[in-house]
Specification:
The chain is α/β, with parallel strands linked by helices. β3, α3 and β4 form a beta-alpha-beta unit. It is globular and about 40 Å long. Bound molecules: D-xylitol-5-phosphate and zinc ion. The site of zinc ion has 6 residues, from β2.
């Protein structure tokens, strides 16, 4: 399966944002993971549509918007217009998840669905056919730089088995606490889209991106 690195912009140096994005693109990343937080679904507030709209013309990376917001259906159209290619919503944040998925499709974007660490994989079972990507959170959403929750590996394996049983090869994304020292476990469990914030943007962004990409390429 194609392995993709999705650096999380949340950990980038915002005063050098254009340069940071160019660096990850030049060194092999394919997605730009864009963490949107509303201060309600998660405790923190990050950034929103105006930031996306301004970086969109500056990059060819796939814009992967991870909406950590309550009732994301209210903002799907706005994020699509701002330039998101793929919009991920949280199962826990939606009153009507199927309507939210339909709204993302109607706006012409690919659909991702995410679950928090305490939400069981089984709760996604009837939605698997409707989405392009499933995001297993391996930290509690809200902040970068947290420690990987090891139980996430079992959730990835369980999801992979569930998809295989249904004959689906849907992308599995994993987000939170992933570094060169543990990314292989995550891949071996079944994930193919790796979000990494601190691991990419803390220190030398170019070298960090290359290091992660070298590992990912081994599994293609
Ligand atoms: C957490 C975000 C993550 C986070 C990842 O709420 O969804 O994307 O920024 O950062 P690291 O890789 O530092 O855990
Ligand atoms: Zn994220």
């Amino acid at each position: 399966m194609k392995m993709i690195l999705a650096p999380s912009m949340l950990s980038a140096d915002f005063k050098e944002l254009g340069k940071e994005i160019q660096t990850i693109e030049e060194n092999g990343a394919e997605y730009l993971h864009f963490d949107v937080m509303d201060g309600i679904f998660v405790p923190s507030i990050s950034f929103g549509m105006p930031v996306l709209e301004s970086i969109r013309p500056a990059t060819k990376l796939v814009c992967d918007a991870h909406l950590m917001i309550t009732e994301p259906i209210r903002y799907i159209e706005a994020f699509a217009k701002a330039g998101a290619d793929l919009i991920t919503i949280h199962l826990e944040a939606c009153e009507d998840v199927e309507a939210t998925i339909a709204k993302i499709r109607a706006c012409g974007c690919r659909v991702g669905i995410s679950i928090c660490p305490e939400t069981p994989v089984a709760s996604l079972e009837n939605l698997l056919e409707q989405v392009d990507m499933i995001l297993i959170m391996s930290v509690h959403p809200g902040f970068g730089g947290q420690k990987f929750i090891p139980e996430s590996l079992d959730k990835i394996r369980e999801l992979k088995a569930m998809l295989e049983k249904k004959g689906l090869d849907t992308d599995i994304q994993v987000d939170g606490g992933i570094y060169p020292h543990n990314v292989e476990e995550v891949i071996l469990a079944g994930a193919n889209i790796i979000v990494a914030g601190s691991a990419v943007f803390k220190g030398d962004t170019a070298q960090n991106t290359r290091t992660m990409m070298e590992i990912l390429k081994k599994y293609e």
